[in-house]
Specification:
The chain is an all-alpha fold and about 350 residues long. Helices cover about 70% and strands about 0% of the residues. The protein contains 13 helices and no strands. The C terminus is likely disordered. Its main location: membrane.
Amino acid sequence: HHRPLPILGMGMFVLGSVLLFSIISLVSSLFVVFAEFTFGGMVGLTNALEQDRFISGFMDFYLKMGEPHLSTSYAVMMSYWEVAHLILLLTIIHRMKSYRSLGLLWAGSSIANQIVLIPGVVIGKYGSNIRPAFFRNAPFFLVSFWAASLFFSRPREMPIVTADKIAAEQKKGLLSRPADLLLSLLLLGAVAFFVFRGFVVLDCPLDACFTYIYQYEPYLKDPVGFSRVMMLVYFFYAVPLVSILLYGLNTPGCSWMLDWTIFFAGAMAQTQWCHIGASLHSRTPFTYRTPADKRWPVIALNVLLAIVPALLALRCRTNPAFLMKPVPKGQSNDDKKKN
């Protein structure tokens, strides 16, 4: 009766490992990766539709014998997000050549997905019931990082901006750039919120933390564990990254902003979609769902957290003059040597 379990698990693991090594040996072929992730996306979408009872009979065996955590509200929202991954991957495959930015958006989303899912399963209530099939996530996790490193190392297509425009834009202070000022304030607010929610899930005894977790986002203490891991990922990874992005937004010539803002926007869209959806989903026990009287402020705050990185990426893409390497006019060779 239990024999399919190790066979299923090890089969998935071997399949993933073979895929990983075959890809590494064919470094030029990112499309093998995309094909595999596209298949994974279709499986994820099937799972979401089955859990919400739109279809039935496809995933029962796999959930029982393979990955029981896929029936949680977080995993259902994560599975719906696979639609976004599918659209991104199919667009990338269609465009073939100029897919760097879309690739970074996908990589941010995919890494954020795995970095919350894997530790969340291990530390949450499903940690005592991990089946071999769970390890199929490892190749996906590693391949996401490998693909991201390829995207970052590809030459960036820089827009053509005149030296005069770059110089004029880079002379402006923050007060002369109202959009950047507003984005900087929103990013500072995001950092404060990340830190606060990090303290909340670390059982900070302050009254504000206690009130927040019981009256606003009880989902943060859901024993499934995904929300706790997500808040810690924000606390330890998003806070330093946003701090660096704030620096880039206020210092001329940080052309790396064009890449990292897209990557971060992808990551935040994925995690916030899952977090908002899971905190309202019927598969989350009622006591952990966002209370009805506090629902709209909590949703608004969480939606804002997803929108601000997207606006930042859009701002960097549509008006990159401030971020481009300055082209000093009339600089003498002596000056260049000194610099």
